[in-house]
Amino acid sequence: MEIEVKFRVNFDEIKKKIEALGAHFSHFEEQEDVYFKVPRPKLLRVRAIHNLTEYYITYKEIRDERNEEFYEIEFKIENFQKAVEMFRGLGYEVEAVIKKKRWVYKLNDVTFELNRVEKAGDFLDIEVIAEDPEEAKRKIWEVAKKLGLKEEDVEPRLYIELINE
Amino acid sequence: MEIEVKFRVNFDEIKKKIEALGAHFSHFEEQEDVYFKVPRPKLLRVRAIHNLTEYYITYKEIRDERNEEFYEIEFKIENFQKAVEMFRGLGYEVEAVIKKKRWVYKLNDVTFELNRVEKAGDFLDIEVIAEDPEEAKRKIWEVAKKLGLKEEDVEPRLYIELINE
């Protein structure tokens, strides 16, 4: 299971704090996500990481009220545009297109995704892959507190909801 | 557009004739196709070519009564099982699983797919990619006749229909 908590952040400030924490910079991504309309709690998207010329189909099922627990199936694909056309052919409508710049940092089994999201702002997703959601959230909050993040900084809405508001 | 005509054949006999025609052997495939239930004229499948460890998602729209003209979107994917699980997660039922061995030959812009299909028999698909379906069919029938194939050898049903009968 993928467990992640999203925080609204000040980009420059949090970047310095993540680096000061000892997390190492993994890589940078320029993402374009095409989300298709599927009934919640499901999510369906085709992602392009343009600067790495990598493309993915991702299917998720949200497992909680706060959009923190996800069952996820993701696999790499050869062609972004063809995947988008295939889903349109099957009858799916595009719900939103989200463009973001992402700086990825890692510290042990915790992944920090610092996102600059067009039309939505700056966010930090702290993510852990784990069997036990409670254990994962404990780990996430341990580092979140070290970064000075509080419960009131949590953004429980999905990017797709933030974009479409 | 993908134009193809499917013939019911005697495997050994037609293999010799294809080779005698001067077509060159391209490669061999062990295919496993998972077809999902979608309303016709659409077709949706995930294909594994096990011996080449290649996997594809294919979406087609049948454009004629004889199942010879197809609008096709196909792209390579990294993982067969995850794609199958994704479509199941989205709510698609598996309509059929088709296993076949395929010998591919080429002669100029004509592709010969000689198929040994489990539970259905032996077939030759003669395929041309072209803008103009009539021009493509003329080309197909030109070589088909040289192979001794006749109108009565045509199998207009899809593999998925042959398997499910």
Automatic annotation (TrEMBL), chains A, B:
Q: Which domain of life is it from?
A: Archaea
Task: Tell me the InterPro entries matching this sequence.
Answer: Adenylyl_cyclase_CyaB (IPR008173), CYTH-like_dom_sf (IPR033469), CYTH_domain (IPR023577)
The record's Gene3D superfamilies line, in alphabetical order, gives: Hypothetical Protein Pfu-838710-001
What Pfam families does the record point to?
CYTH (PF01928)
| SUPFAM superfamilies for this protein | CYTH-like phosphatases
Any idea where the CYTH domain is?
1-165
Q: SMART domains from the entry?
A: CYTH
Q: In its UniProt entry, what is this protein called?
A: Class IV adenylate cyclase
Organism field: Pyrococcus kukulkanii
